[in-house]
UniProtKB/TrEMBL annotation:
Keywords (A to Z) from UniProt: Amino-acid biosynthesis, Aromatic amino acid biosynthesis, Cobalt, Cytoplasm, Lyase, Membrane, Metal-binding, NAD, Nucleotide-binding, Transmembrane, Transmembrane helix, Zinc
3-dehydroquinate synthase C-terminal domain segment(s): 179-322
GO cellular component annotations of the record: cytoplasm
Role, per record: Catalyzes the conversion of 3-deoxy-D-arabino-heptulosonate 7-phosphate (DAHP) to dehydroquinate (DHQ).
InterPro entries assigned to the protein according to its UniProt record, in alphabetical order: Dehydroquinate_synthase (IPR050071), DHQ_synth_AroB (IPR016037), DHQ_synth_fam (IPR030963), DHQS/DOIS_N (IPR030960), DHQS_C (IPR056179)
3-dehydroquinate synthase N-terminal domain: residues covered: 66-177
Ribonucleoprotein is among the record's keywords: no
Protein name as catalogued: 3-dehydroquinate synthase
Enzyme class name: lyase
Amino acid sequence: MKQLVVETSARSYPVIVGTGLIETELMKQLERLNPSRILVIADSAVQNLYGDKLMRAVSSFPSDVYAVPSGEESKSFQTYYDIQTFALKQGLDRKSLILAFGGGVIGDLAGFVAATYMRGIPFIQLPTTLLAHDSAVGGKVAVNHPEGKNMIGAFYQPEAVIYDLDFLKSLPESELRSGFAEVIKHGLIGNEELYSWLKQEIRNVGRINDSMLQRMILQGISVKAAVVKEDEKESGVRAHLNFGHTLGHAIESGAGYGKISHGDAVAAGMLFAVWLSNRTLGADLPYEEIQSWFRELGFPTEVPSDLDTDLLLGKMMKDKKASSGTITMVLLQSIGECRTQAFEKDRLKSLLEIWRQ
Ligand code: NAD
Ligand code: ZN
């Protein structure tokens, strides 16, 4: 078991990563918080697999479970409202505690419930996907609105993040790969040593063992925690976390959500950002090396050919970080060192066309 501390203005909280933590570390946190009631908000697939184990671990407190169907559709205002109704009917009060038991969907949803139920009650993240190393830390919680993803939300920090690796054993390889793209992102933007180790050791996501998982989760989280500490509310460097995501989100949305995984889209987006860094910042990044590593890992190394460049640019202009005719890209001066750079739409379009050829 290993631990690090995330510091924010609201509170400092531990992130604990290891195996068998539900019986030990979760218990310690529950004893510290001594909640009047516990509400487990769970992904139904995760609850089916591990719900009995979790409920045994929390059985010394009055507890309820609310399981939501797996998938992004559950990050909705309706589900949020239904959970609030359930919580009120079960008699949760201001001393009650929420446990978010699942991947990023559950963390965002349960976190937003916790942030707003009776003006805010404590919650603990129990992440069960690799991608959740990104989402469980930093305090962004939200539900989606038909007008846009994550549009209704808050900044609200958990009491603790307990990453029990035993739960990740059942994660499908495609989900592991999607989360792995974000680990690579954290290496590229903030930790050269993490990047080099990943590139050296991980050539097949199917062969990632517990000790590798522990290391990549902790180091990825520490990059994110450092960025969040410097810029909690996203007015400056927090934008660096968007590396690979400007084009990545455009690919995801252009292809139609669910057609291409978030990690695959971000991998292609990161590759373009690396190429663009060399081309426009005069950086000397090992583009070909990264490209062939991504190929080995099974990530796409180009944008699907049926996605039109104009369509992608249109999507990139709609990005939250775009303003007045320019698109801001997060680039790398070197591995571990980010720069943001604004591009005129037409210039970025011609660069994207050159890269795609
Ligand atoms: P997810 O929560 O939908 O989980 C992915 C799939 O894996 C689901 O089908 C789920 O049922 C299944 N699953 C989860 N754990 C499992 C396990 N242990 N064994 C077997 N199956 C399991 O998706 P995700 O990729 O974890 O998270 C994506 C969400 O995270 C998006 O909504 C995104 O907006 C959000 N996100 C938030 C932040 C943030 O800062 N708050 C950052 C990045 C992403
Ligand atoms: Zn992402």
